[in-house]
Amino acid sequence: MAYNIVTIAGSLRKDSFSLKIANALAKLAPASLKLEVITPAGISFFNQDLEGAPPADWLSFREKIQKSDGVIFVTPEYNRAIPGVLKNAIDVASRPYGKSSFNDKPVGIIANSPGPLGGVSAAKTLQNILPGISGPIMQQPEAYLNGVGDAFDADGNLTKESLKPVLQAYIDAFAVHVAKHHG
């Protein structure tokens, strides 16, 4: 049996590095994990006034998270934080209060940047947001991927050899994290 993992690439850009990393991670995943890669595209803005009759896109996103066995966030860094669309998706799925769709879901965080810092601030933002609305966040290994601008070919395949063992170690550790939580 494979655990179903929702992997949220936190960018809307068609050729985003986060989406490419999430897809590469799905290819590297052990047989015990089945990764479904999604983006926050199509999730309307959170507005508490709509909670009584939530929009269909909110319900669909919440259900996808609820049916999963875990969640991996793959986020770029925008202005020392996560993209607004990713924060919006988290807000939508974490509501209504006390009924977060992320409850009890093992969580992984991978940050990335074409620059030298690897999205550390974005990862720290998620580490601040998620406690209290999610399950256990995998602590080790941490993944801050820098210099990802030249890591993929024109078809989106991972070609930067130095990244493969990092992603492999991460997804293998996440498989253990998920199994431990569901065991």
From TrEMBL:
Stated name of the protein: ACP phosphodiesterase
Domain called NADPH-dependent FMN reductase-like: residue spans: 4-145
Domain of life: Bacteria
A GO MF label: oxidoreductase activity
Cellular-component GO terms for this entry: cytosol
One Pfam family of this chain: FMN_red
Signal peptide: none
